[in-house]
């Protein structure tokens, strides 16, 4: 054990345990040193588990018990299977501490001396966990929520696949550098439904978003292409370029309207006045659109030239009204427009309420339609059945004969199948019975072999315990041999070793002889038991036949049964005596091991701790 303890102490020093130089055995470990060694090993094995454990015992007894329980739970969490509790650390015994430290040292990772010097704080563990989670997430391709399947769902299930059906969407966006007006913001906030509610078919949300995104991307690409080819050559800003493009478009529309107004005035149609009003409106917009704040002399010249060329072709003959009539006309137009705006607002409110009412009504109507469709489907099936029945009515007798013939043929077929099944059933039943009998015999043989195996296992355990004891004795003798002075002649040691080896060989021969004798005795016991059972069965059968006629034979049958029962009780008593003797030997060994575990000293320490806990409780009660 000294070599094992030296290895354990060396490993504990490598993981950072402060083991004093005079401590050269686990027997000399104090409770504080045991706690420090266990916590150091736990911090190297699992830093997250051992980080919150203290390396020393607190002064209070209740806190010591809590620390002992937490250490025991931590050791069990990493896989320790032995019996462990707070008493292992507070009232340590040499075998328990040695087995625990051996387990922890075996659990230490390779290169624990280098890894113990590194940082094992919570921040480092958190960073490692975040890095691992990010690597795992980056390895998985991103998918939209509607495209993600359940973990257990098949990827090619028919209910997961949908047709690509896109619908136009109304999204909240404004051109770059501009802010939406108040009415647009109110519309977006109060009236514009979400994207998922704008689609009539829920699986079409993804396809509609993809279509919208593709359209926006293509428009952006077209604008970039146009700006790179034409916009940069115009030496205008993007906003000015868009304004000029919009002005040109309005000029073209104005020209078309002017030509349409001239043709309408020539023909004398009623729409000439409407076209004139619309043309005035476009002229007002175009005048505002031409007002650019900044630009070079070349840009202003170019705009002036374009304006003259656009206005030159065909001016409209208009009479210039006076300033007072113009203001009066504008006030009248403003009042009429305000009235129209109020009327439109009231119409919009009325339409929104009507739209909500219509949506509720539409949902109810759709539910009614679905319900009626299901009812119609059921009625359609019933009509089909009745129709087939009605088709069969004109030839009822012939159809009845056909049905009777089918029934008769079916009955004959069932009878023939039953006869065939009976033919196959009889050999199958016989085979089943035969196999059951074989299984019963094999079960009996296996039970007998199982009992023999159990007895052999018991013998093996006894022999292994004896071998362990002899091995410990051998190690002790070897340690004593090493501690002896080296000036003794080698021949004496050789002679002693040879004597020990010869004694071991004799002991092995005796063990094998005992094992063989035990096996022979067990065989004889089994044979005698079987012979006794067979003899009793035959005797019981013979006497039972004559017991019905003769009273003396009946009494002898009773005596035979009582004798058999007494013999069984005697055998059971002998077996119980053997098991009790084995338990006595086990208890004696346990007593010896407990005597070696410093039980009396531990009991004294427990009593002292108990007194300290009572004193702490009394102090706490006085404080309360």
Quick overview:
With 624 residues, the protein is an all-alpha fold. It has 19 helices and no strands.
Q: How many alpha or pi helices?
A: 19
Q: State mean pLDDT (0 to 100 scale).
A: 77
Q: Low-confidence parts lasting 5 or more residues at pLDDT below 50?
A: 112-121, 152-159, 285-321
SSE run: HHHHHHHHHHHHHHHHHHH
Overall spatial form: flat
Portion in strands: under 5%
Radius of gyration: 52 Å
For the record, the CATH architecture of the domain at 2-139 stands as: Orthogonal Bundle
Give a written overview of the molecule.
The chain is mainly α and 624 residues long. Among the domains are: 2-139, Actin-binding Protein, T-fimbrin, domain 1, CATH 1.10.418; 511-624, no CATH class. Helices cover 78% and strands 0% of the residues. It has 19 helices and no strands. The chain is flat, with a radius of gyration of 52 Å. The two termini are 51 Å apart.
Q: Keywords for this structure?
A:
single chain, 624 residues, mainly alpha, Actin-binding Protein, T-fimbrin, domain 1, 19 helices, 78% helix, flat
Could you outline the blueprint of secondary structure elements for this entry?
Elements: H1 2-14, H2 31-45, H3 47-50, H4 61-77, H5 86-90, H6 94-107, H7 112-117, H8 122-139, H9 182-191, H10 195-198, H11 204-231, H12 238-267, H13 272-289, H14 297-311, H15 323-392, H16 396-483, H17 490-547, H18 551-596, H19 599-623
Helix pairs in contact: 1-6, 2-4, 2-6, 12-13, 17-18
């Amino acid at each position: 054990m000294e070599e094992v303890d030296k290895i354990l102490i060396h490993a504990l020093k490598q993981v950072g345990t402060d083991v004093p130089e005079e401590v050269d055995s686990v027997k000399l470990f104090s409770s504080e040193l045991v706690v420090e060694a266990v916590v150091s090993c736990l911090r190297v094995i699992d830093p997250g588990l051992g980080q919150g454990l203290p390396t020393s015992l607190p002064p209070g007894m209740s806190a010591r018990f809590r620390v002992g329980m937490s250490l025991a739970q931590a050791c069990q969490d990493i896989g320790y299977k032995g019996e462990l509790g707070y008493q292992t650390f507070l009232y340590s015994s040499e075998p328990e501490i040695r087995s625990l430290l051996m387990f922890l040292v075996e659990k230490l990772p390779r290169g624990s001396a280098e890894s113990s010097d590194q940082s094992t704080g919570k921040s480092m563990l958190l960073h490692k966990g975040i890095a691992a989670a990010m690597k795992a997430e980056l390895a998985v391709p991103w998918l939209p929520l509607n495209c993600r399947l359940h973990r257990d769902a098949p990827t090619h299930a028919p209910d997961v696949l949908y047709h690509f059906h896109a619908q136009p969407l109304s999204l909240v966006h404004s051109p770059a550098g501009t802010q939406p007006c108040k009415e647009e913001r109110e519309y977006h906030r109060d009236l514009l439904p979400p994207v998922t509610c704008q689609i009539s078919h829920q699986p079409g949300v993804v396809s509609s978003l993809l279509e919208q995104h593709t359209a926006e991307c293509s428009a952006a690409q077209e604008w970039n292409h146009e700006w790179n080819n034409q916009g940069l050559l115009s030496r205008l800003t993007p906003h000015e370029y868009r304004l000029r493009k919009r002005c040109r478009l309005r000029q073209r529309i104005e020209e078309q309207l002017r030509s349409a107004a001239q043709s309408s005035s020539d023909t004398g149609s009623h729409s000439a006045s409407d076209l004139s009003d619309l043309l005035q409106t476009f002229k007002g917009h175009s005048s505002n659109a031409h007002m650019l704040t900044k630009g070079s002399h070349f840009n202003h010249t170019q705009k002036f030239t374009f304006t003259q060329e656009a206005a030159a072709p065909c001016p409209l003959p208009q009479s210039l009204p006076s300033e007072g009539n113009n203001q009066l006309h504008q006030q009248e137009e403003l009042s009429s427009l305000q009235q129209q705006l109020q009327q439109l607002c009231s119409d919009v409110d009325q339409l929104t309420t009507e739209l909500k009412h219509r949506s509720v009504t539409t949902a109810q109507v759709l539910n009614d339609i679905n319900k009626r469709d299901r009812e119609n489907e059921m009625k359609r099936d019933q009509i089909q059945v009745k129709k087939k029945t009605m088709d069969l009515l004109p030839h009822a007798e012939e159809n009845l004969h056909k049905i009777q013939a089918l029934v008769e043929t079916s009955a004959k077929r069932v009878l023939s199948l039953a006869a065939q099944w009976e033919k196959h059933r009889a050999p199958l039943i016989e085979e089943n019975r035969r196999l059951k009998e074989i299984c019963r015999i094999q079960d009996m043989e296996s039970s007998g072999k199982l009992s023999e195996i159990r007895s052999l296992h018991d013998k093996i355990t006894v022999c292994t315990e004896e071998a362990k004891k002899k091995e410990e004795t051998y190690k002790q003798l070897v340690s004593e041999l090493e501690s002896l002075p080296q000036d003794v002649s080698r021949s004496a040691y050789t002679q002693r070793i040879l004597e020990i080896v010869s004694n071991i060989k004799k002991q092995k021969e005796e063990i094998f002889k005992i094992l063989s004798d035990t096996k022979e005795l067990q065989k004889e016991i089994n044979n005698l038991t079987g012979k006794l059972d067979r003899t009793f069965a035959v005797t019981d059968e013979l006497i039972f036949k004559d017991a019905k006629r003769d009273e003396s034979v009946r009494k002898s049958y009773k005596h035979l049964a009582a004798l058999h029962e007494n013999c069984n009780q005697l055998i059971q008593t002998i077996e119980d005596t053997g098991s009790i003797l084995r338990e006595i030997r086990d208890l004696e060994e346990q007593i010896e091991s407990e005597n070696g575990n410093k039980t009396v000293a531990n009991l004294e320490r427990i009593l002292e701790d108990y007194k300290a806990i009572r004193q702490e409780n009394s102090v706490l009660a006085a404080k309360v």
